[in-house]
From TrEMBL:
Catalytic activity line of the entry: guanine + H2O + H(+) = xanthine + NH4(+)
Annotated function: Catalyzes the hydrolytic deamination of guanine, producing xanthine and ammonia.
Protein name: Guanine deaminase
Cofactor binding: number and manner: Binds 1 zinc ion per subunit.
Family that this chain belongs to: Belongs to the metallo-dependent hydrolases superfamily. ATZ/TRZ family.
Cited InterPro entries: Amidohydro-rel, Guanine_deaminase, Metal-dep_hydrolase_composite, Metal_Hydrolase, Metallo-dep_hydrolases
Involved pathway(s): Purine metabolism; guanine degradation; xanthine from guanine: step 1/1
EC class (word): hydrolase
Organism: Microvirga makkahensis
An example Gene Ontology CC term for this record: cytosol
Gene3D superfamilies reported in the protein's UniProt record: Metal-dependent hydrolases, Urease, subunit C, domain 1
């Protein structure tokens, strides 16, 4: 018999662009947190399954106006930047880093400060439905390990990276690794520490090798981290072709694109997460797809710092793995639902163009827009595919990472008119209008990790 049974209507996008409504189903979750069965309302074993789960106190029944969605996957978060969310976004990227961000991140040498910030961040993200988070931490080994520990304690699926950055020309003296050897050795110690902390063959929290971005790393560091990724079979994350300044810097230094340089140093690997990638070429996209790497599309922060709109449709058409990133704090919203909305807007801006002085057929790039189911797929199953993890949809064998959206919460922005709205209509309303207040219960690995105190289930 299953450990848990969740009864209600579930909405998900198991393949890109295709909404599937699982109406009045019972989702059975086993002791490993995986979905073992999905039973329709007329299944002959349903009464037996319900009775057993109810007797064990493991039956959750969604009420009228409540719907089950897969948990959200956020592929790009700067955890230490949580205190500056919504600040200093009027600066250019290089000024924002040097004047605001690096001084803040340097404070994480204080472990008590780090724990206080990270506790609040993980709780806030879980309340927003982010069941899987990919984090940049800081250069500090102990504070980075503390973030991994907090994610594990609070039950969030997470990939955590200790940042590596050693270039004296781009990193301030008060905030950088002493040298490449120190950065590589501490990254190795971090990987080992997280693996010991998380344990088991299927850990909830995993380490990820994290060169901040090419401009902040010497050749020796990039080479050392690439070798380490191979030696320890560890995932990689970094920034890639984010802005005019950053992409020009890399071209001038190496005579090649970010993608080509990362590949040269062994950092473009299966499930490498490349944040932004706004200035990638068709050749870069082909290389990313060939390696099985992925792009974290961060539409909100791109509007502030990238100077361009990411070619999302081009990446999807080349079958590149793509998911969404909030990019806290260059992105000022912690909500991946907001990320869906920003992705939709960015794709329409790319398609329609921005200069009204140009004729309509010259103003934008036709065929660039994405649909609401595609945006939601990026936030869920697409993010899972990017990481190579069985998450983001309701299918057998996948982890039960999920949330309940309740239309009846006070102040809800979602208006539902059953006589006018199909469930497909309602799905669009949920993606475009639901907020944190509508998220009343969150599961990761089949365990409840966030719950509204006023919820009735």
């Amino acid at each position: 018999m299953p450990i848990k049974v969740i009864s209600g209507t579930a909405l998900h996008t198991p393949t890109r662009g295709r909404l599937e409504v699982l109406e009045n189903v019972h989702i059975l979750v086993d002791e490993t947190g995986r979905i073992s069965e999905i039973l329709p309302s007329d299944h002959p074993r349903l009464a037996e399954v319900r009775a057993h789960a109810e007797a064990q106190g493991n039956l959750t029944e969604l009420q009228q106006g409540q719907f089950l969605l897969p948990g959200f996957v956020d592929l790009h978060i700067h955890a230490p930047q949580w205190p500056q969310l919504g600040k200093a976004l009027d600066a250019s990227l290089e000024v924002w880093l040097q004047k605001y961000t690096f001084p803040l991140e340097a404070r994480y040498s204080d472990l008590a400060f780090a724990r206080e910030v990270y506790e609040g961040l993980v709780e806030a993200l879980l309340a927003n439905g982010t069941t899987t988070a990919v984090y940049f931490a800081t250069i500090h080994l102990e504070a980075s390990l503390a973030l991994a520990e907090i994610c594990l304690t609070k039950g969030q699926r997470a990939l955590v990276g200790k940042v590596a950055m050693d270039d004296t020309g781009q990193c301030p003296d008060f905030y950088r690794d002493a040298d490449a050897s120190t950065a590589v050795n501490e990254t190795r110690a971090f990987i080992q520490g997280v693996r010991e902390l998380a344990g088991c063959e299927d850990p909830l929290v995993r380490p990820v090798i994290t060169p901040r971005f090419i401009p902040s790393c010497t050749d020796s560091l990039l080479e050392g981290l690439g070798n380490l990724a191979e030696q320890m079979d560890c995932l990689v994350q970094t920034h890639c072709s984010e802005s005019d300044w950053e992409s020009r810097f890399v071209q001038e230094r190496f005579g090649a694109s970010d993608t080509a340089v990362l590949s040269r140093f062994g950092l473009l690997r299966q499930n490498t997460i490349l944040a932004h990638s706004n200035f990638v070429s068709d050749e870069d996209l082909t290389a990313i797809q060939h390696k099985g790497a992925a792009i974290a599309h961060c539409p909100l922060s791109n509007f502030y710092f990238a100077n361009a709109v990411f070619p999302l449709r081009a990446a999807l058409d080349k079958n590149v793995h793509v998911g969404l990133g909030s990019d806290i704090s260059a992105g000022h919203s912690p909500s991946i639902l907001d990320g869906c909305r920003h992705a939709l807007l960015a794709s329409r801006a790319r398609q329609s163009g921005i200069d009204p002085r140009l004729p309509p057929d010259e103003r934008g790039i036709s065929g660039s827009a994405v649909s609401i189911p595609e945006a939601f797929w990026l936030a869920t199953a697409g993010g899972g595919e990017a990481l190579g993890l069985p998450i983001g949809k309701f299918v057998l064998g996948y982890k039960f990472d999920a949330l309940v959206l309740d239309l009846n919460t006070p102040g809800s922005n979602v208006g539902w008119f059953p006589n006018l709205d199909t469930l497909e209509d309602l799905f669009q309303k949920l993606v475009l209008n639901a907020t944190r207040s509508n998220i009343v219960m969150v599961w990761v690995d089949g365990a409840i990790v966030a719950r509204s105190p006023s919820i009735h289930l």
